Amino acid sequence: MTAAISLERVSKVYPGGVCALDEVDLTVEQGELVAVVGPSGSGKSTLLQLIGTLDVPTSGTVRLLGHDVSGLSDSLLSAARARWIGFVFQQFFLSGTLSAVDNVATGLLYTGAGRRARKERAAEMLHQVGLGHRLDHRPARMSGGERQRVAIARALVAGPRVVLADEPTGNLDTASGAVVLDLLRELQRAGTTVVVITHDTEVADRLPRRIRVRDGRVVADRPTPRGGTR
Q1: DSSP codes joined into one string, 42-75
Q2: What pLDDT sits at residue 193?
Q3: What b/e readout covers 93-120, taking b as 16+ CB neighbours within 10 angstroms?
Q4: Virtual CA dihedral for 228, 36, 52, 144, nearest 10 degrees?
Q5: Do 30 and 10 meet the contact criterion of CB atoms below 8 Å apart?
Q6: Handedness of CA 57, 60, 66, 67 (dihedral sign)
Q7: Cα maximum dimension of the chain
Q8: Each residue of 39-83: pLDDT tens digit?
Q9: N or C, where is the chain less crowded by C-beta within 10 Å?
Q10: Where in the chain are the domains?
Q11: Are residues 207 and 200 in contact, defined by beta-carbon separation less than 8 angstroms?
Q12: What strands lie across the sheet with 209-214, from one edge to the other?
């Protein structure tokens, strides 16, 4: 089976000679649930941007579902992001003027689906994440945990093959964070590849595989004890 994500000798050097990634080799198989952990400035966010086709490496090869992303045009990269990748961020990035269902429906804007179909699919996703009773609520009327679940529903509404979650529990209390991690585990059990970027070692320890990044290099890559089931 083709790997979901493959990096071969990938480096990223920013203007001024700042090396964010230094010849990283990394493979994530389809259906894995992986934590990428490291302190601020370690290169983990740059890694997410390259995997998510939001940036390009200075050197090396990034492959997404077997496709060398450097060989894709801007239009094909946009299509790949819309169809293959779901993004979940720490800050939620929900529109305060839209209801939960309309926020989730924005994840289908580039799929060609009509407005009614987008709202129906968005409502289905909100039910799946336990927010069927919040369809018409705006973010200001929701808790942090609920807003993150709306963001997850938006990331999943187009049926992506890969979900990239950047500090998805960073703004949440312990109980809400546990709910979000449970949702990510359910995704993985359903066959979605999930990569969680975090500085929180406790979050990383609860996921099956932990990749540690420091100073732009992968310094450890191993299964977590008991498969991250704590």
Answers
A1: SSHHHHHHHHTTSS--SEEEEEETTEEGGGS-HH
A2: 96
A3: ebeeeebbbbbbbebbeeeebeeeebbe
A4: 70
A5: no
A6: positive
A7: 51
A8: 988 999 999 999 999 999 999 999 999 999 888 888 888 888 888
A9: N
A10: 5-93+161-228
A11: no
A12: 85-89, 162-166, 193-198, 33-37, 209-214, 217-223
Confidence at residue 228, expressed as pLDDT on a 0 to 100 scale:
58
User: Percent of the chain beyond pLDDT 90?
Assistant: 65
Residue 215 carries which DSSP code? T
**Nearest Cα to Cα of residue 126 among 109, 96, 110, 148:** 148
pLDDT digits (tens, 9 = 90+) for 165-224: 998 888 888 888 888 899 899 989 999 999 999 999 899 999 999 999 999 999 999 998
51 neighbors 27 (Cβ within 8 angstroms): no
The answer to whether 10 and 57 have CB atoms below 8 angstroms apart is yes
How far is the C-alpha of 153 from the C-alpha of 151, rounded, in Å? 5
Q: Note the pLDDT of residue 83.
A: 83
Q: 126: which 2 tokens?
A: 């909100």
> pTM for this structure?
0.89
- For residue 59, the tally of other CB atoms under 10 A from its CB is 11
Categorize the per-residue pLDDT at 25 as very low, low, confident or very high, splitting at 50, 70 and 90: very high
* 190-211 residues labelled b (16+ CB within 10 A) or e (exposed): eebbbbbbbeeeebbebbbbbb
> What is the distance of C-alpha 185 from the center of its chain?
13
pLDDT at 230 over 60: no
